[in-house]
Every structure is written in C-alpha cells, then in structure tokens.
Design brief:
The protein is α/β, with parallel strands linked by helices. Helix content is 30%, strand content 22%. A three-stranded parallel β-sheet has the order 2-1-3. Helix 2 links the parallel strand 1 and strand 2. The model has no long low-confidence stretch (mean pLDDT 88).
Length: 73
C-alpha cells in the first residue's frame, strides 16, 4: 500500500450539483462508473433547475460542489 492509498478523504460523501446540460456529462460518467469508490468517496448527483439554484445551494452548503458556468464561479 502506498502513501496515497493510506490517506482517508476529508469527506466520504460528496453532493455534486448540476444543471441537466450536455456539459454535465463528466459528472454523470463519474457517478455511474463509481469513480470515487477507489478513494472511499460516494458521489451523489443533485439535479438543479437553474444556475441560480446551483449558486444558492452552494452558498447555503446544501451541495458540496457543482458543474457551473465560468461566470457563476
């Protein structure tokens, strides 16, 4: 076991917000392929109705991260 495998993640459950557009495909692929499992992370996708909802939920802490427009960041 190497050093990176022995370090546990700060969070084990990530809530990722997205607006259902084609550029959100990497988030969907990561969740479907269970790409976080190797690192002990469970990915939960949280579909949002608008960019304003993504912004508001990021600010309130309801979601941990999001796919977002450059201007929103």
């Amino acid at each position: 076991m190497n050093l990176l495998e022995s370090i546990s993640p700060e969070r084990t459950h990530l809530r990722l917000g997205f607006v259902a557009l084609s550029d959100a495909a990497p988030l969907a692929a990561a969740a479907l392929a269970d790409m976080g499992k190797r690192h002990g992370i469970r990915i939960e996708l949280c579909r949002q109705p608008s960019w304003a909802a993504v912004r508001d939920k990021l600010l309130s802490g309801e979601i941990d991260a999001a796919h977002a427009l450059y201007g929103l960041v």
